[in-house]
């Protein structure tokens, strides 16, 4: 029995797996959360990749590590879509670095992400409230 794959071909990996009978590894996943996190950080100000990676550690789940290759691929993709602009800058300390900034279209996408995440936040809140009620009343 395959436990790490989804039930359907091409489906994403499951967010839970059995470690041993009665013990589960559960991972609450927020798919592509790094994208809105990057958009928010760039809305706060232009920055280069390594500063962005350092700032992301405050917004991603504990224990997660920012993969620089993936970060730069995502930034290039956002730039190709017109959501982010970049320029080479010698104004930052050290060697010349590419500095990224959010475009107006990127700001609109950040607004859309915010509304979507707010809805998810309310849904999760209702679940947790109901779970807390269940825990308090089950005995």
Distance between the termini: 36 Å
For the sheet with most strands, the description reads: 3 strands, antiparallel
Structural Rg: 19 Å
Low-confidence spans: 1-8
Major beta sheet, strand line-up: 3-5-4
Topology diagram in text:
Layout: E1 16-20, E2 23-26, H1 34-44, E3 47-48, H2 49-56, H3 68-80, E4 84-89, E5 97-102, H4 104-137
Antiparallel strand pairs: 1-2, 3-5, 4-5
What does this structure look like?
The protein has 139 residues and is α+β, with helices and mostly antiparallel strands. The chain has a single domain (32-137), classed as Winged helix-like DNA-binding domain superfamily/Winged helix DNA-binding domain (Arc Repressor Mutant, subunit A, Orthogonal Bundle), CATH 1.10.10. Helix content is 47%, strand content 17%. The protein is built from 4 helices and 5 strands. It has helices at residues 34-44, 49-56, 68-80, 104-137; strands at 16-20, 23-26, 47-48, 84-89, 97-102. The strands form 2 sheets. It has a 3-stranded antiparallel β-sheet with strand order 3-5-4. Strands 1-2 form a two-stranded antiparallel ribbon. A hairpin with a 2-residue loop joins strand 1 and strand 2 (23-26). Helix 1 (34-44) packs across helix 4 (104-137). The model is unreliable at 1-8 (pLDDT under 50).
